[in-house]
User: Fold this.
Amino acid sequence: MATKELKAFTREEVAQHNKDGDLWIVVDAKVYDITRFKNLHPGGASVLLDAEVAGQDATEVFYGLHRHEVLEKPQYQRLQIGFIVDEKSVIQGRVIGELSKVPYAEPTWLSTGYHSPYYSDNHRAFQKVVRKFIDEVVTPDARAREEDGKPPSASVIEAMAKVNFHAMRMGPGKHLKGLELMGGIVKPEEFDYFHEMIITQEFARSGCRGYGDGLMAGSVIGLPPVLNFGSDEIKAKVVPEVLSGKKPICLAISEAFAGSDVSGLRTTAVKTEDGKHWIINGTKKWITNGTFAHYFTVGCKTEDGFTVILVERSEGVETKSIKTSYSPTAGTAFVTFDNVKVPVENTLGAEGAGIFVMLSNFNHERWVMICSSARSQRLIVEECLKWTNQRNAFGKPLHSQAVIRSKLAAMISRAEAVQSWLENITYQMNNMSYKEQAKYLAGPIGLLKMTSTKYAQLTATDAVQVFGGRGITRSGMGQHIEHYHRTVPFDAILGGAEDVLGDLGVRQAIRQMPKNIKL
Assistant:
């Protein structure tokens, strides 16, 4: 199909096309013929026939009502017939693979002129290829699936598997040995928690919370117990199937009867008389990816206490979708186990040692959630800075209002504080064994997750106030704000409620208090 030739016009020529039946406008030096479109305009034809719009430069009016991405849609690109002679377009939206130039839109280590002791040249090269991959492959699917509620597309899962994305999301470890990561840009033995943080935070930039969980987040928290406590036979079978994206796994701990209180779980596992199988009965609730998972990492009550068992989808396993305030693409499920027969070889860790298995898993799970929360807050900061710069109120830019600047200051401060603490903890993770992480970092990670999710909800509330009615509208200028405000409570619940995690951090500190210290 031949490319349409765009013509050069003067502003005087455009001004002659200012009436019903012959209607042109200018947006960012581009000339659009909206004669036929005007009656399809969602805001009505009268807006376009206004004397300040018809035949005029409507750039300021347009960006007061619409996002830049509207002009990038094919149906609207076709409306462009030319450009203003001797003028160039200067406005651009998000550029695929590129860093944002908006202040505080990127973490300090990615901001021009700043330095960081934590990131190497390899981290920076890795970030570039990861962002380009996510912008091109993941984000378009994220926006489509977030709306229709379907699971992430198989083509995206397969594309991620080809560059071993799923494996990298499990963090550093032996499971990466022999794999080519992102085309070989990082060696398996050099992959660390900062590389993993980059992946998680780049995912969060899509601003699609339900899709983010739907994109095998269940595997991120459900597979580590298999990697760390499964037998060699189990790992040889299950790990490749999960990391290929063909057979997802999920973590099935929470119940209607018990969430943060793991000791209160009621799902039971009883051995058969010959001792060769477990018979599992019970229910699990709010299980991420449960609707489409093939494997379930299940917390069960056993004779010896609490035991974690790997269950394959089979007879007696039933899953039902749970409607929540974010997209069904997350696959949130109610899971029923009805006399499910499982080989005892599927036990993860020792019988009765399930608490240790899960506690060792919680640190990484919560850390991943903090990575996502920190980056999502930054996305909201970016949206608010853009909006207050282009929105006029009382004849002045919105940011001329002191109360608005105060809200922006609070948002920026919260985002920067969380990221700084997160990078400190991540550095500790890189220099600690798994056992040392469990000993020293459970408390700090719990406190940081509590802090991050509390900050996130404050930022969500402030952002709605900045955007006004647009901040509670699912489409248009405030779509990311509305989505964030609606879905941000998930982060405060998943992986442990805020109060529980705060208490965990303080109790750990109290246990470490020297006995001989007094005021």
Observations:
- The first helix runs from residue 11 to 15.
- The CA atoms of residues 7 and 176 lie 55 Å apart.
- The chain is about 45% helix and 15% strand.
